[in-house]
Amino acid sequence: MSVLQALNAYYRRLADRAGVPPFGYSTEAISFALVLDAAGEVVGEPVDLRTLEGKKRAGRPLTVPQSSKRPGVTPRAFFLWDNSKYVLGLGVDKASKGVAKHPGHFAAFRERHEKLLADSEDAGLRAVLGFVRRWSPERFTAPLFKPEMLDQNLVFMLDDDEDADGNPRFVHDRPAARLIWETQAGGEEAEGATCLVTGRQAPVARLHPAIKGVWGAQTMGASLVSFNLDAFASYGKEQGDNAPVSEAAAFNYGTALNKLLERESRNRIQIGDASVAFWADTARCSEAAAQSAERLVTGMLEPPHPRDDALEELANTKALREALEKIRDQRALKVEEIDPNLDPDTGFYLLGLAPNAARLSVRFWHQTTLGPLVARIGEHWRDLNIKPFPWRGQPAARALLYQVAVLEKAENIPPLLGGELMRAILTGGRYPRALLAAVIQRLRAGEEINGARAAICKAWLVRDARLSHPDTAKETYLVSLDRTEPDAAYRLGRLFAVLENVQRAALGRVNASIRDRYFGAASATPASVFPLLLRGANHHLAVLRKKTDTGGLAVWFEREMGEILNELAMALPRHLRLEDQGRFAVGYYHQRYTAKPPGADANSDQSHSDKPAEEV
Q: How do the domains of the chain map onto residue ranges?
């Protein structure tokens, strides 16, 4: 199933539960309503429809006649609502912050309503027609009108007009207004063609809907489907004719995708520059089961803190907690263990979108079923498993990307990496090589070798080994300190951690430790660095032997160094590949933060005070 077909089906699901506006309408943030008398004169102060969001007032979401993109410079007005530039001919001047006139916009608004309402006998529509004929910007004066109305979306109300329930009614909700708009929105004059989404003959959408909510895209929305250059066209066709999608199907997929990408939506996550929307298919299950499946996937893609109240909102909270704990024991994750009422064969879709100027790029489109999806996420968590474990709960994918960004800021996450990481998680394929390279780059830049970065290196290495040599790969590879591991890079990482502890035990805290000065060079070119470090360690061990309370500690350090060096070749590697630098980091982390073996001298527990705090 294509992206647009799946979204079209999801719209029908939303429409069944009245979660989206009908065809020809959209949900917009409306700030004020102009109350008109029968002649079209404004009666009293406009009604403030805004609601308080935090410390700011924002427009109230209302279902209004559908908005559209306004390409070019020719003003195009909406029906029975618009921003103040069109409704009043006034806006805010960006330079002076004063009032600016927009006569062309108001003229477009008046012309459209003159055309559509000229033959109407409805009182509300006649009032709007009277308003556009009488209004002039000079009438925008206090105390009736306020500057905060400028550049806000406005609608109309007829004075004392109420619906069947006795509630105040907007003009666009009157039956006569709906009839006119439904006839207009039907696109009866548009040329028909076979819709690529539904397969039916229908009027083709000339322009596709604007998609809002994609992080980094234009606030007014960006196009998922568009043709604005000759290179994008074929056989002399223009705009939407190059990929014929009916007006109804275009509306359906745009409405569904905008619903998924809403700010408060539980069906979206942000991973780097990729905004990921996901939803279940109700072909094999009920609406309630589909929503349960979506809540489960939400909890797995964005795992809450084990003591977070947000976890209580998820289905079968206790079972989910127990399932998350099983990951630490290297056990596979199954849907039926979490919720026996969920069908593992429930269809599931995940769509990753990223901004591309005025358009959207599809980072990935993944069709699967619930069982394999849960198993893949569990496999990803098992690959990240490392001891000591650096997180309180299982980490979200987006949390990993902060570890590879300069200053751990979202804007510094390497582009494309979020989509590539998510694709690897969903398919079980190799993690992007750029992920490992970015971690190593952070470590070479002097940033902390923490548990999260070590876990990323370990996950990359484990998955690469499993896919390269499926018959010999071990599930417990690099999970915890392995004193029998013969790999030179891993042992050199362990040796570096021991040498750092020797320095700390002999000199205490110093301004620049060997980790600060030599980690990058030691992990890349060990042959040129370790001889120098070993000579320095001999001096530090001599200092420890002279102290009465650290003599046993010096002996323990020498045993550790001897155990590591015995399995190393006499000639150290001149250069380490990227993968080996990852093993070096994992070996360092294991040796640095793993508790001392039984029987070690009490004074030897030098790493305990530096054990990494649990990372969120």
A: 25-185, 283-348+369-480, 488-610
